[in-house]
Amino acid sequence: MNILFLLSPKIKTSYLESDMTVRQGLEKFKAHGYSAVPVLDKEGYYIGTVSEGDFLKFIIESGNADIHSMESEQIISIIRRDFNPPISIDASLDELLEHLMDKNFAPVIDGRSCFVGIVTRKSVLEYLRKTVDSRSLEWSK
Predict the structure, then answer these.
(1) What global pTM score does this model have?
(2) To pair with 88 at 20 to 30 A between CA atoms, which of 47, 117, 132, 140?
């Protein structure tokens, strides 16, 4: 199976740009209600994923929760680059499932390492639900 079938393309995906301020990132998080979002550079390369926890850690370490103080730091300074590594557009279903075991989404990159979109755990579960015979999912009595 080709993971493109499950892909939410970049155009339909919320993401942050690496040069945005922490304040801008936090406001976008608040507007969309996500718990983690991909971060891209200006050329569209995947840099990493920023999470609610990254914002919280920044606030705790800075000792200041004032929204205006967050205008001096860029998003790139708070992300953990190893938190949600990307998968290739050519990844197998097994690789995708392994990635989604402990993540809500998998960032997908093409052969040039450019971000093309995400595959969510929800989209995979919906696909599997539709393709598996419903009778095989019944619990034995």
Answers:
(1) 0.87
(2) 132
